[in-house]
């Protein structure tokens, strides 16, 4: 995959002439594939190289690149607050990747042209540095879309994994571990979710030990090194925010409540009740950041519930996700900036 990624870099760098206006490159109405995501990442990288840098966080179980985008104004000195946005922890949830890539594209457009989607986008770069992982689980996304290119050699082992429903419902990584059950939040041993599986499966298997899945471990290590003050992990079902758990809610002294109330009100998302039982809530990315680095972590479920595992059709993305939630990441940051003086002691 590295070769493929480098090849795309070269092709695009030699062929693209850019104009920095309101140019949305993320398409709106078809399934978002790994190769589309890679191509969009590279296009953004060349177009916005002043403020955007792209690294490879690492490689998935099946050797697919996991891109890490960083938006930062390096000409502006001073301590910046790191924030982390992650999508596609769950394989089938391609809306989450599309949302985060479209947010990134519109945010970058708006930095150079304030008449675009986000007014005064550049002011956020004086205060924040953005870390963005739009494709946390490339193997899983490929399996969910039956896009075997680059992972054909793993077909035999993939087919041995217990499959609950059609490929399009695949939620785990390529090895059959649900990444959002595999983080080392201190409660992994308690986790026994509703969809519990004892062995690798397309959903519901937490792994033998925390951090076993390469993809979860890579994100965990990034969190440990950059210590984001806010982590938003994007999923796709329910129009709901999972924003607090009983084990950590107390430590935020109401900051978590205030931030999520604002986002919930402005975007029309429900705030879940504070999760009570680690058997159900444990070992997600949001739990990890709350428990291990004492920072704000939210699981954002984009798009309305439909009472099934199947995702909404791709052509509904604009209506169900983008128009409703495009301001959500910056709503969190606006509210965080406003409240920070009162709560800065939490982050010392
Ligand atoms: Zn999910």
List keywords for this structure.
single chain; 348 residues; alpha/beta; Aminopeptidase; eight-stranded mixed beta sheet; 12 helices; 37% helix; globular; binds zinc ion
Describe this structure in words.
This protein is α/β, with parallel strands linked by helices and 348 residues long. The protein has one domain: Zn peptidases (Aminopeptidase, 3-Layer(aba) Sandwich), CATH 3.40.630. Helices cover 37% and strands 13% of the residues. It has an 8-stranded mixed β-sheet with strand order 1-2-4-3-5-8-6-7, sandwiched between helices. Strand 1 and strand 2 form a beta hairpin. Helix 1 (2-15) crosses helix 2, helix 7 packs parallel to helix 10 and helix 8 (255-267) packs antiparallel against helix 12. The longest helix is centred in the first third of the chain and has 19 residues, at 94-112. The radius of gyration is 19 Å and the shape is globular. Mean pLDDT is 93; it is low at 9-20. Bound molecules: zinc ion.
Number of helices: 12
One letter per element, helices H and strands E, the order comes to HHEEEHHEHHHEEHEHHEHH
Number of domains: 1
Largest sheet: 8 strands, mixed
Number of strands: 8
Classified by CATH, the class is Alpha Beta
Unreliable stretches covering 5 or more consecutive residues: 9-20
> Which CATH architecture would you pick?
3-Layer(aba) Sandwich
Output the CATH topology: Aminopeptidase
Strand content: 5-15%
What's the name of the CATH homologous superfamily? Answer: Zn peptidases
Q: Indicate the overall shape.
A: globular
């Amino acid at each position: 995959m590295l070769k493929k990624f480098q090849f795309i870099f070269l092709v695009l760098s030699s062929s693209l002439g850019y104009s920095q206006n309101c140019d949305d490159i993320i398409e709106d109405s078809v399934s978002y594939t790994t190769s589309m995501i890679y191509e969009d990442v590279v296009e953004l990288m060349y177009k916005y190289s002043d403020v955007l840098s792209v690294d490879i966080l690492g490689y998935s179980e099946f050797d697919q690149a996991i891109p890490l985008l960083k938006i930062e104004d390096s000409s502006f000195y001073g301590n910046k607050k790191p924030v982390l946005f992650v999508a596609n922890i769950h394989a089938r949830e391609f809306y989450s990747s599309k949302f985060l890539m479209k947010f990134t594209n519109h945010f970058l457009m708006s930095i150079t042209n304030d008449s675009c989607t986000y007014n005064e986008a550049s002011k956020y770069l004086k205060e924040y540095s953005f870390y963005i992982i739009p494709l946390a689980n490339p193997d899983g996304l490929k399996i969910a879309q039956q896009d075997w290119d680059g992972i054909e050699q793993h077909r035999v082992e993939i087919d041995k994994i217990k499959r609950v429903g059609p490929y399009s419902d695949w939620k785990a990584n390529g090895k059959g571990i649900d990444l959002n059950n595999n983080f080392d939040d201190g409660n992994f041993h308690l986790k026994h979710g509703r969809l519990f599986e004892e062995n690798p499966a397309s959903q519901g298997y937490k792994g033998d030990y925390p951090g076993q899945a390469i993809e979860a471990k890579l994100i965990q290590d990034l969190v440990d090194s950059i210590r984001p003050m806010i982590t938003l992990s994007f999923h796709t079902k329910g129009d709901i925010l999972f924003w607090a758990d009983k084990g950590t809610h107390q430590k935020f002294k109401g900051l978590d409540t205030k931030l999520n109330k604002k986002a919930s009100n402005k975007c029309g998302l429900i705030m879940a009740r504070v999760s009570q039982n680690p058997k159900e809530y444990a070992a997600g990315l949001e739990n990890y950041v709350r428990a291990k680095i004492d920072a704000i972590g939210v699981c954002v479920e984009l798009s309305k519930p439909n009472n099934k595992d199947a995702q909404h059709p791709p052509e509904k993305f604009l209506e169900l996700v983008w128009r409703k939630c495009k301001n959500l990441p910056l709503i969190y940051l606006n509210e965080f900036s406003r409240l920070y003086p009162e709560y800065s002691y939490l982050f010392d």
